[in-house]
Amino acid sequence: MSKAAPNIRIWLCSILLSVAMVCSLQAQDIGKELPEVFTFIFKGEPIEHALQQLVQSTEMDLIYDPAIITDHTVYETAKNETAESVLRMILKDSGLDFFQLSSGTYVLTKSPNKYVLRGNLTGRVIDQKTGEPLSGANITLADAGGGASTGGTGFFSIPQLKKGPHAVTITYVGYKPVRDTVWVPLGQTDPQEFSLVAEPVLVEPLVVSGIQKRLAASHVFSQEVDQQQLNSSSAFGAADAIKGLNAVSGISFSLPLADFNIQGGNAGDHQLRLDGVPIYNPVSMGRLLGAFSPYAIKNITIKKAGFEAPAGSQLSGIIDVKQDIGNTSENNFLLQANPLNINSRFDHSFKIKNGPKINFMLAARGNIWRWYQQPELEQTLGNWDRLDPVLTNHIFQSDSADTFFRAQDNSYDINYYDLHAAARIKHNDFHQTLITGYRGTNKLKTNLFSENTAALADVASSFSPGLFYSIDRYNWTNTLGKVEHQWLVNSRLDASLSGYITHHSLDHNYSITNDIAAGVGELSNFNAVRQKLEQDAIESLRTGDENALLESSVQLTLNYSAAKNYQLQGGLSGQFLDYRFQLSDLFYNAVQADNNSFLVSGYVQNLLLLSHKTSLSVGSRLTFIPSRDLVFAEPRLSLKHDEPETPIGYLSFQLSGGIYRQFINQFDVSNVGPSSLVPSIRFRVPADYTTTVPKAYHIAGDALWEPAENWEIRLEGYYKWIPSRLALNYRNLSQFPAFSEASALSNQRQFITQSQGYAFGSGFSFQKLIPSFNMMLKGDYQLNIARQRIPSRFDGDYQPLPSNQPHNVNVGIDWNIVPRLTLLMNWQGIWGRSWGFRKAYYDYLSIRENGSFGEFTFDDPGSDRLPAFTQLNAGISYKQPVKNSEIRIRLDAFNLLNRENVLNWWLSPFRNDEGTISFERRERTLTGFIPSLSVKFSY
Length: 939
Prior knowledge:
Blueprint: H1 4-29, E1 38-46, H2 47-58, E2 62-63, E3 73-81, H3 83-91, E4 96-100, E5 106-110, E6 118-127, E7 138-141, E8 147-149, E9 155-162, E10 164-171, E11 178-184, E12 192-196, E13 203-204, E14 206-209, E15 230-231, E16 251-253, E17 260-262, E18 270-274, E19 277-278, E20 283-284, E21 289-290, E22 297-303, E23 317-323, E24 332-337, E25 341-351, E26 357-367, H4 375-384, H5 389-395, E27 405-428, E28 431-452, H6 453-457, E29 467-488, E30 493-514, H7 515-518, H8 526-539, E31 545-563, E32 566-583, E33 591-609, E34 614-625, E35 630-646, E36 649-661, E37 664-670, E38 680-686, E39 695-706, E40 711-728, H9 730-733, E41 752-770, E42 775-789, E43 798-800, E44 807-818, E45 821-831, H10 839-845, E46 852-853, E47 856-857, E48 869-882, E49 885-894, E50 902-911, E51 917-925, E52 930-938
Parallel strand pairs: 2-5, 6-12, 13-15, 14-22, 18-23
Antiparallel strand pairs: 1-3, 4-5, 6-9, 7-8, 7-10, 10-11, 16-17, 18-19, 20-21, 22-23, 24-25, 24-52, 25-26, 26-27, 27-28, 28-29, 29-30, 30-31, 31-32, 32-33, 33-34, 34-35, 35-36, 36-39, 37-38, 39-40, 40-41, 41-42, 42-43, 42-44, 44-45, 45-48, 46-47, 48-49, 49-52, 50-51
Helix pairs in contact: 2-3
């Protein structure tokens, strides 16, 4: 026998003994029943209902006196818990307790030691003057026991507070903080309405941008300048709310247009909304002015890099423009005139007997070009409205030095108007309906009669055209209507249900002809030649560019206060898009698309107050496109911390980021017309099934520092990676139908290509109020670097975006000299602009087989850097009360130093001494000194 045998026997005996012991223990437990477990979910159930559910489901023997039951609400989740454990959860924070009799019966009783009376604080924050709800106002408890922020309807709720008085602070950017003591009743909701008074500002409308302080610490403005509210003006003297954004950090305008971009984005990477409704191509006067009457606008909110899920889906940002609905019980009227247009506004309020109170506002803006042509604007248009010789040769497929054009006659017809309407039906303090509407048109017509002086002077070139006539026509329209119903559902929930329709259309026609094409060589009368050329150009307007987009939507938003330190926001919307797009100029390949699209989107946003100083926002958007059968997710996160009392003052920091998509895209087709005033034809279409949906990643940091009561310093930084952005394929667009048999392009993949890019930057801004002088000093510096790579262009290299302005500085002084007199001065400098030539040069000439023009080529736009742009503007405003009315006179001086800033370059061909064609670079400059006078009357 082996020596290992005894060991094996011992090992087997040990195993058998262990099994026997386990079986013995199991046998002893037979007959002992395991306690039964249950699962409950209570979502805001009254405690009495929760107890009834418990008794019915568990058959618990429970008795109590109904008089001791409070109005406590139960928010608990019990999973696989015993009946007694569930009872403890139901009674938590209710002021009740229980004990068990020897018979097993449970008896409820009051808890004298732990009983805490509780209630809910619910309310609304509004503007004291207008009655408008303030979205994003912060409500904090003085004892740091919780807080909330108002939703889009101005409602807030802080549940489960101890009965009795509570000190609260309400803060909102541009308004004086309010500190108040409110009484929270036992188990009830007594809605409170808080009215905030707007802080005095020198420039209206109020622009909300970047991080805002949540805890009250200081006042940025003083009351000494309360009555000096002025409108920002454009370079031609018209008040312009959109161009007033020029001084906002992170916003860069394309000189001299009203087109702008946000933090290194393309012009089409952001969306502008009026009362939450998208407005496509919101410009006037051929894109020199922004749309909207400035006197119809209440405020503008800018969502920059890292914006949260409720804002929407865009690659770069969101601009929310809100119309102003007056809250006065009296009739008010305003009339304002300047060298470009007339603005008017009318407010009225009335109350229906035993019914709601109604406020409505009507505002209008219309141009006065037919009666008065501002000389500076007319001169500017005349300087720009010239046939470009290189583009003209490109259009007629020729290369000639015999092209030097001189304008013999040009005329312009500018016509635009904006109509605003808004009404608020106030059923009660916590239940109202808003109705808003807008209609805007923008028409521009130019006629240009030119002669080619080089061809007319050269007998050898008698077969070359000598006389040219071009016509350019634009017609933009925007229309919207919206109805929104807002109400407070209960002490924790407020809701908003809205629907809107918005329509945008563009029609563009361009035509150019010459004496040879029109067959006018035999005519000797100059006027007869001109009329013949004009008639031939008009007959050539059979083709044109069109874009129409009809968008309708229904939206539901909910804001729910789950706990003192936790809010849940959610929204659901459906969008129907019907669009038409057509390019049919003689100078483009024909493109035509006519389709519709449907999108369903929703978002969830969790707002957690981690402490009275720190808040966390976590959310995501989901968008479903039925035609693709795909769902696109956009998760986002934001963390904010406030330090109201530090040795160096008030500090606030925010870090945010996420994924951003764009489902409706804007494309700018560079205008190949050699005399076009508008640089591009802009159209908007949803991404179809042949293209990718653009995507961007954001990370952004913001900081606010108030070292003293009258100081405000802001810092911001961002980085964006855009792995997918759509761009035009100019090579496919430039196949001239007159010389090829190419068919019309219909799928977006045929004329749109994919690109990728990145952008990063930082911003520094400050405001310093000097109360003793009633003076505000302000300034900002922006660094924005934005690059994009299109594989089929510029050798596949990264190039700056055409709109990129790497360095931008603004410095200003607003001085209330005496109570009725205010002086404003502003200096702006821009450095690092590239794409120095007209954009059409890079888009059309660079793709030619012979893309060089003497020493000039257009395959590296980043190397063509323009000189610095600097400009000093000044304005002075005086107001004179007249009984119950007021007259305000304002004088502006733009480009006070009369600096000739370069807008871009163009090439002029000539024949050198050797007889070969050479090219000379020439400058296209911006307007010089412009004075402007405007008058505003209101009562």
